[in-house]
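Homework help thread (please don't just give me the answer)

Our assignment gives two proteins as sequence + structure token strings and asks us to describe the second one. The first is just a warm-up. Here they are:
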Amino acid sequence: MKPSLFGTDGIRGPVGGSLINPESMLKLGWALGSLLYETQPAQRVLIGKDTRISGYMLESALQAGLTAAGMNIGLLGPMPTPAVAYLTQTLRAAAGIVISASHNPFEDNGIKIFNAQGSKLDDDFEHAVSNRYYDPMEVVTSDSIGRARHFLNAPARYIERCKSRFNGPPQALSNLHIVLDCAEGATYLIAPCVFEELGATVTVRHATPDGFNINQHCGALYPQQLAQTVLSEQADCGIAFDGDGDRVIMVDHTGQVCDGDYLLYVIAQHLHRQGSLTGGIVGTHMSNGALEYAFERMNIPFERVDVGDRHVMAKLKENGWHLGAEPSGHLIDLNQTLSGDGIIAALQVLSAMVTQQSSLHALVSTLHKLPQALINLKRSPDHVWPPSEQLDAIKAQALQQLGDQGRILIRPSGTEPLVRVFVEGTDPVMVEHVAQQLSNELQTLLG
């Protein structure tokens, strides 16, 4: 088996590195295109991107590889990741590609690929693409080379799609003042239009991307920036996206940051009240324990999976459920979207606020989250991961200090060179102490 190109969320790395460079993207485009050409010759592949300066370079290389394999191209320009998933399905494309490194800084970039149904590629097809990538590149005959065209109406299509997902009358948001933080990323054009056209008074921040400022001290990674603006503007709430728009974090009118756990709670409770929540809910091992207890009281099944929205999606499909989320702000409602969608998730929260005539602060106040601590340790490629027996031993000792409701998760990040140490318990002082203790021990083990 040849080495896989794909990580936990597509392909990601530093621009100019071993994979994120023009030569590799040319070969990747050809590998994907040649596989698709075997069953769907001359079909269209859509390409969208976020606002990184490197996106133009990588887009050109992918385009050359795909057309060399005989596939036609639809260029969408800067578009949120969920928009590419939706347009891939609705425009009947063979596949959709997003050039983005999500929440990473501009020095990184990456590739996410959707199949014709707007879902991320399954493991088997990823393996097939990886295997084909290492084969010698062959170009189709000159009369079969693909063509490229720009889809200038792509943003308008997706704006209307988002508005249609809002459960409320026209101008239903006319009494709300909302602050948007677009992270200098892919939502900079679409998000303000969606919320303004639904009637809200909108204050927009970080929506002037220059190719270098994406996620730079703004967006979902830095919600305190948004909280300060909400307070100074005396707004009803704030909404922050990440660089590619598949994550959302909100802020209530008091400046309280509401992560994916809080937003999942609001949406689930609202759907439950309306009788439109079918099945159970999927979270991850980092979802706050308070969610589990809250859903148990509501007689709603709750299951945890490994961190990553693809794991949430897989479990939802396996169980026949539709609602799940990560604390980081990936919220998936398969009755509304094909993948995590920051704009549509925010609209679901606003729908709950408008329908229940309640503030976001009031809706989240009934979820009493357990104290958590998360420490990120830098990890170099030459660090050897400790044996599982050694990790289990230090975790067991730490769990004794936390008590019955304690939880610990130690895992390498799938998108960054980091090790994440996560601790949850009932005593905030003990939680912080155990997290620091575990981090020190792990740092020693990693050298």
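The one we have to describe:
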Amino acid sequence: MQRFFFDVDDGQFHEDTEGTSLRDEEAALEEAVKALAEMARDLIPTSSPPSSITMWVRDEAGKRLMELAVSLSITRWP
């Protein structure tokens, strides 16, 4: 098992200081996608103006392995 850290910026930066033990990088990606989808469901509809959420996955050495982002934009026409 390896420890992965999931840092999030949803308008404020939140550093994951505990991490999560997972079998490999692919499992970390799956965990990140699930977590980001939940955050988007909870945060984006209530934010004003619409915003974005970015997540970075780090390994135990602190190396960033991947970045995931979700955003919502609204365009209205008269």
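TA reply:
I won't write it for you, but here's a hint about the kind of observation we're looking for: Residues 25-43 form the longest helix (19 residues).
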